[in-house]
Amino acid sequence: MKILTAAQTREADAYTIAHEPISSIDLMERAAGALVQWIEKEYGPEQPWYIFCGPGNNGGDGLAVARLLFQRAYDVQVVLVTEGQNHSPDFQQNLNRLPTEIPVTRTASPDDLPSLLSYAMVLDGLFGSGLSRPLVGLHAQAVQHINNSAATVIAIDLPSGLFADAPTPTDSAVVEADVTLSFERPKLAFLLPESGSFVGKWHVLPIGLHPDFLNKADSPYSLLTPERLKEVLKPRLKFTHKGTYGNALLVGGSYGKIGAITLAAKAALRAGVGLLTVQTPMVGYSILQVAVPEAMALSDAHEQHITAFPEEVNQYQCIGIGPGLGQAADTALALEKLFRQALPPLVLDADALNLLALDRQLLRNLPANSILTPHPKEFERLASPAKHDYHRLQLLKDFCQEHECYVVLKGYHTCIGTPTGECYFNTTGNPGMATGGTGDTLTGILAGLRAQGFSPLDTCLVGVYLHGLAGDLAAEQEGEYALIASDVTQYLGKAFQQLLQ
Description:
Elements: H1 6-19, H2 24-42, E1 48-53, H3 57-71, E2 75-80, H4 89-97, E3 104-106, E4 121-125, H5 137-148, E5 152-156, E6 179-183, H6 193-196, E7 201-205, H7 211-216, E8 221-223, H8 226-230, E9 247-251, H9 258-270, E10 275-280, H10 282-291, E11 296-299, E12 318-321, H11 329-339, E13 346-348, H12 351-358, H13 360-364, E14 371-372, H14 376-382, H15 389-403, E15 406-409, E16 415-417, E17 423-425, H16 438-451, H17 456-478, H18 485-490, H19 492-500
């Protein structure tokens, strides 16, 4: 699913109006109907609803919702924060349509704003995605009034004051929504940490924007959907064997960190790889043989860390390097020597990434189409510090294009950067996965999939989605607080089953 800019969304509206054809006021009515349908499913008419409306089309949406909720016997009050401003034509038309029985508060000062009780519902229709400057004056004071209340806040399309696809100034007044109901597509701001915190839970409401425009719209950003992944992940055929599904090598572990490579190994096997070999220092050999009997174990000559890679690396369809690896000097030399060879596909994580960051020449020799899986701090070491989330996205695109690699930038909405400049945001996963070892399980999943012959892009898309989905299934049973990395691996099978349904 492509993620559109605010400008493209306005163009989609205009295209729909011209080519469906439909009048703008009827398209607004359709959007309001979608909002009301969602509200009716989630909330009954027991609580009072305060619908805050600004002077533009976002306020027009709010007025239309007020009318439709009133018709359904909801307790509705309208709060107009439009003093001294021109109303959009559709706003004015919906204001004219408002039943006289609905109480309307016209605010000229903060003293006019109604008290909001804790059990009240607030629908934020002050400003939408067209906003390009911070809110000031009465609008900012209205936002602060909403935020200071304990009411449940639902934002129409976008929390007021938040920019849709640009950094919002840090001192701006922004509605802190509990829920955001976005029309047709999510906004880029929903998916980034700094702005996403204002959005709360978000839902996409289809409103029938013209599919021709949506299909042709050009955007570097997409949202992962199960439909896209089901085209890639197919049921296994009957007449296959372990050699059909690839031979992977995982390299990692050091004294005190054998658990990391063990977690990666178990996840690689659960991801369906046919054969798996795991190389650890001598201290990890017995641990691997007992903990992961399905894998073959190789022992480095050194007791506590890796000093050399296997001679015949081309027998493997993928090499995953990094979990628990450590940053010993001879480990760095071994990685440098490895990069001088013709290599199978690579998946690099953890200390493998830190070694790349310490040696820029090593980074310049990174084999094309490698998959890197940094968390934000590791990516900062590889690229450079980001001024804000949007700058980090640009750094991600630049880095992937410069090094011809795929970067899985981990986070709540993990972002997959590609050499072509496209970025894919994940939709699975939960805060319970913010625990040690879940990144190691992701490395194992990606190495296991890549060894099976999936393209680097499909490996990233399927692997990241499955990893998060397994975490979600685990959280349903264990809860987010109690979730551990082994749970993610345990629920991978159910994640595969759900995606293949």
